[in-house]
Amino acid sequence: MKELLLKQKQVVFFIIAGGLSAVMEIGSFKIFSIYIPLIFADEYNYHGIYFPLSNIFSTACGIITNYFLSIWFVFVRGKHSKKREFAYFMGVSFLSTILSLTFFQIFFSFIFIDHLDLGFFVVSQEMLSKISAILLVSVLNYTVKKNFIFNG
């Protein structure tokens, strides 16, 4: 098992960095989804889009966290300059954000119709949707970042 982890060190570090970024994104989403509706009442449902600002702001927090963790711990600098690498990272992150927001809306509207009661903890419909969207998009993110951005 130890040999497998050493061979797949980059994947393990990506999972750890992604997990920390997801914690940042989910935590900030929870905070934003509580406080933004106090200022902007339509945040719950803005023309059929649920929690748009909370999603955008929390995703930005997750992206920034992930960028720094990726360049510090996961990937070796590739063949691109720092500026170009950052621009590619942000471009991929922008597309990932669109995908994540789309998946969130699908999960929130059609899949997670109610909260999940675990007995000792209740997971809300919006949190289930956010977590699921993050997990789905993270597979795409790793593949694109490894093969196109940080491909030394």
UniProtKB/TrEMBL annotation:
Keywords: Membrane, Transmembrane, Transmembrane helix. Pfam families: GtrA_DPMS_TM. This is GtrA family protein. The keyword Iron does not apply. Residues 14-150 form the GtrA/DPMS transmembrane domain. The keyword Membrane applies. It is a multi-pass membrane protein. It is found in: Membrane. The chain crosses the membrane at residues 12-36, 56-75, 87-113, 119-144. It comes from the Bacteria.
